Each structure stands twice: as structure tokens, then as C-alpha cells.
Amino acid sequence: MKNYPESLRLYEEAKLYSPGGVHTSIRNVEPHLIFTRAEGAYVYDADGNRYIDYQAAFGPFILGHNHPYVNGKVIEALGRTDLFGVGTTDLEIELAKKITKHVPSAEQVLFCNSGSEATYHAIRLSRAITGAKKLIKFQGCYHGWHDYVARNMLSAWDKIGTRDPGSAGMMDEAIDNTLICTFNDLENVEETFRQNKGEIAALIVEPIPHNVGCILPQPGFLAGLRQLCTDYGALLIFDEVITGFRHDIGGFQKVAGVTPDLTTMGKAMANGFPIAAVAGKKRYMQRFNTQPGGDVWFAGTYNGHAVGTAASIATIEMMENEPVHEHVFRLGDRMRGGLREILDRLGIEAYVAGFGSVWTTYFMGFEPKHYADLQHNDAEFYVAYRKKLIERGIFKMPMNIKRNSIGYSHTEQDIDDTLEAMEAVLKDMKNKH
Ligand SMILES: Cc1ncc(COP(=O)(O)O)c(C=O)c1O
Description:
It catalyses: (S)-4-amino-5-oxopentanoate = 5-aminolevulinate. Helices cover 37% and strands 14% of the residues. It contains 13 helices and 14 strands. The strands form 3 sheets. The chain has a 7-stranded mixed β-sheet with strand order 4-10-9-8-7-5-6, sandwiched between helices. Strands 1-2-3-13 form a 4-stranded mixed β-sheet. It has a 3-stranded antiparallel β-sheet with strand order 11-12-14, covered by helices on one side. The protein binds pyridoxal-5'-phosphate.
């Protein structure tokens, strides 16, 4: 049993100066741990407790915290440069070369600072190209905080299929021009295209909806979306902010063999440093007004900052030169295999979902195909399980339907220690259930 007196003291102090004491809404979870140190696979709270970290700050840490190679390259870059606000930098050119080399859809790329910016730019570009207004997204997918996409995300179950804006203060026109479809249901998507013929600018999708854990696209689904977008003259946007670089150096599009028109990236592209990107076909990218004559606004004071670009180059170099994906996929399989065995042995109804370095255990009896299926997950058990793991030094976000991420710094021993803790917690919970 861990104690958190210093975390609690700091949390009380934080609340005096910032609403809720946190700087992103879903960080406000119990227990209110304040982390003060991070290294490799581990994070340490203000009371000195150590945790094996699978939250990975919602996904960026594909290599692990404070990775020495990445940090070294950032420090080296900062020793000679920072930000100029004019022209381009050698780091921007080098990073753009790498991304266009590895990511199939990326004929050209532009850098910004967050995934939300990237999806905003991709959607506005799609509207400029097609002259159409509407956007299709899927129930349960998250693409950032802005008005174009912030609806029908983690909807309450009785809000599925209804108009469900994620925030007060959103523009009605933005909400109502974003149409909501069901993931893995091509007929539903086709019907939406048919009913809105000529009005759809783009379809945006997380190729694996990781914001709700891990729902895999069924065979043919992503290729079907590609075909529908082509048939109806809409742009296909793969939001690879989570999947990009985590599942393959070329993104999940490379794994799936489906090439979107535009791709958004962030998170694992720089192992925790702030940078994001929008990429795509050259004929589309040239509409951005970074190209003389382009008419789609693209700007940002911090775009291409030395910190993010140097970190991203170093992260991609690690993937080019070391068996990063082989390692995290192997550990992911070890975790999923071990968990299935434990759950079977204990006779607990559960579905262990995942891909590569990502996994989650839904407490339900079948593979979920779309958001509504997740109603069958025992949310109370799911969150209680995660909280009990925190007490044993395993940190996973204590919130319903969240994924866990493994990084290159995790070892087989970390996975085995985690499995041991999971077994103890599950046994205990089963006995009390
Ligand atoms: C798939 C996806 N797209 C976009 C975003 C928004 O990225 P950011 O939080 O960097 O703005 C997120 C963030 O979690 C995401 O998961």
C-alpha cells in the first residue's frame, strides 16, 4: 500500500493557482499523483514511489522517458540554435526528408506543435481543395480539442447516435457539419456519403481507435474507406497522432497497405518532445501558403523549433538503427499472452485487445468492433483494477477504456513483474467480486 502525502499537498497547492490543479482536463484523476522524476520505463512520484509506466503520457514515449540519445541530440541542437522565425533550418529539412522517406502518403510535410493543430490544418485544407464543408468522423475517435472534431468522443452511452458536442462554447455550424459514423461499418459510411453527396470534404479516422483502448479495423474496412473517399471526391485523412511511428516507422498506413490523402502525426514522432506534422500528396500540400501562391493559411511562431525537430530526428534515427519495433512488439505479445493465460486460469471474463506495443484488457466477453460495443466492458471493475495496480507500482491511467503503451526501455523483467502484479490484483478482486 503506497502513501502519497506530498502528492496530495502539491495537488492542493496547484488548485489554488489553476482550475482543478491540472493543465489538461483528463489528467484530473484519482489518486492525484504528482510525478517528479522519469527515467526509461519508470516514473517516480513526489513521495519517492516508483512505478513502471504504461501511461507513457498518452503515447509519446516509444523509446522511454528521458532517452539519453534523444536528450543528447536536443541538448546538442540547443547548444547552437533555437528558433529564428524566418526561412528554414537544417533540422527542419533533415526531418522533412526522413518523414517523406518513411511515411507512404507523405510526399510533402509541414510541422506544427500539437496533434490538434495538425488535424485542424488537414481539415481546412480538405475544405479548400474540395469546396465542400462537411466532415465525417467516427463515434469514439478523438482528433483534438477544436470545434471541427470535438463531438461524439467518449460519449455517455445514452448519447451515442445523438448530437453530442464535447464542450460548451462550440460553434453550431462546426458541430453540425461534422457527421458521425460507426467504426467498422462500411455500409453506414457509404449511406452517409450517399445522403450528403458532393458535400463531404474529408473523412478523418484513427486507423486504430486507440482513444478508446484498441479497436482493430476489420479486414477491408480501411481499404473500403479509401475507395469511398475516392468514389465520392472526399479526402481521406488518417489521424496517426497515436499510431504513427509507434506501430511502424511508416505509420499504420504502411502496415495496412492503405494510403490516405493526408496524414496527421505527433506523439511518438519525437518521444515526448512537442512537435506534430501534417503530410500528404504534394498537389494538396502546395495549397498551403508556405508555398508562394498557396491560399490555405499555415503559420505558428514555434513551428519547426530546434527542440522538437532535433528530438524527432533522433527518435526516427533510433527506429532506423535499432530494433525498436521488434522489441516493443515482442514485449506486447508477451504481455497479451501472459494476461490471457492469467485470465483463463482465474476464470475471469475478459478480452485482451491490442496491437504491437499497445494493449488493454476489456472486462467483457467478446472483441469490440465499435464504440457502442464498449458498453459491455465492466467499467467499475476496469477502473478499480487499474487503481489497485497503482498501489503495486504499475501505472496505467485509472480511467475507463484507456490503452497502455510499452516502450523500448521496458524489459522482459518489467513485463513479467507487471504480469505478477496483475495476477495478484485480479485474484484478489475475483475473490471479493
Ligand atoms: C488520434 C489523436 N489525434 C489528435 C490528438 C490531439 O493531439 P494533441 O493533444 O497533441 O493536440 C490526439 C491526442 O490525444 C490523438 O490521440
